[in-house]
Amino acid sequence: MTELMDTFCRCVSKAIVEELLAEDGEYLVRTSRQDDEVKRLLGTFNHDTASLIDNLLVEQLAIGELRESAYFRAGFRLALELTR
Q1: How far is CA 62 from the centre of its chain?
Q2: CB within 8 A of 41, min separation 6: which ones?
Q3: Is the pLDDT of residue 8 over 80?
Q4: Nearest-angstrom CA–CA distance, 29 and 24
Q5: What is the pLDDT of residue 1?
Q6: How far apart are CA 20 and CA 61, in angstroms?
């Protein structure tokens, strides 16, 4: 069941969540602003330090994605239980 839910989660994420976020003006402004700030920040450090910061940011994004997936799966399980 977990593999099926993971597949469903990925499909929903690609089909619905990305569409909702693309329509959200505040999300677009914030992500654009964040991207600009990250580029500016990384430009102020030497290559090694910038690489370390970039790796940290990538890990933070991955952790956030794992949390979002877990929240979705928990909600999906709850919805399944409520329909029984």
Answers
A1: 7
A2: 53
A3: no
A4: 9
A5: 60
A6: 19
C-alpha distances in angstroms, 80 versus 11, 14, 16, 47, 71? 18, 21, 19, 49, 14
Cα(63)–Cα(70) distance, rounded to whole angstroms? 11
Question: CA 80 to CA 1: how far, in whole Å?
Answer: 11
Residues 32-84 pLDDT 10s: 999 999 899 888 989 899 899 989 999 999 998 888 888 888 888 888 888 88
Q: Which three-class secondary structure state does DSSP give residue 61?
A: helix
Cβ(54)–Cβ(42) under 8 Å? yes
Q: Do the Cβ atoms of 38 and 57 come closer than 8 Å?
A: yes
Q: What is the pLDDT of residue 11?
A: 79
Chain-centroid distance, C-alpha 60: 9
CB atoms closer than 10 angstroms to residue 9: 19
